[in-house]
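Structure ticket #2291
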Amino acid sequence: MTETPANPPSRRAIVLYGRASFDHGQNLKALASALAARHAARGEAVTVTTAHADLSGPALPGVLADLERDGVTEALVIPAMVPADPSLSAWLPGALSHWATTTGTAMAGTAMAIRLAPPVESALDLPAALDRIALNSIAGGPADALAQDVRGTEPSLGKPGWSAIPEHGRQLFVCVGARCLHRGAEPLYQHLRATMKGHRALNAGPRRAMCARTSCLYPCNRGPLLVVQPDAVWYGDLTPAKIDRIVTGHLLSDTPPAADILHRNRPAERAEDAPMG
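Resolution: structure written out below.
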């Protein structure tokens, strides 16, 4: 009869936490694969994955939840963006602690240990790297590393179509900054887009609404956040149900759901109505 070990071996994971906006240049997935290969070469069984701090998923809480479901017992989060977001040290430790104590079985807190590493740039000699690039980019360096004279490229400030403003009646700005993304903004944004596509009036004509993701809108503690312009109506603590009410009430019927409004700016004072002297 096989006995179950009293202390089963821990399963470790590393999460590279980077910016979606810079993922193409920094290529987090390639970095994760290279890091996993190094661990494997040393005979170490470590899961290496990625999470995004802005704009799009996967967001860190979702990645951690997946790791825990897969049986990971220790997760190391490494801020891998260069340069690092200076605000991370102010809010991320507390946000991870909140996630660890409010998720897991029956919301009793996770049993997975979560450790937050210093930003990767703290281990880099950036001046030396810049100097090396400068040396390799001048004549005498490797041919594929030489800096190109931009005068050899055809001048352009963008495609002709980028000068035209599309017809629309409203703009919706969904915050996908680091804190809102941590609170689940990305799937809510996708839910909003899918819901709007189901209504023809919101895709053409005077009710057409442009929907865009944006960086921090404040107040972060009430995120995920959505702002509807030019109506100057703010919605916070978004849920799929709130988004459905915003679409049917505000966008389709010009009746913002009052119970869901976080803030509403006062209409701008017209110059002719302003008090004299």
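Closing remark: The chain is about 30% helix and 15% strand.
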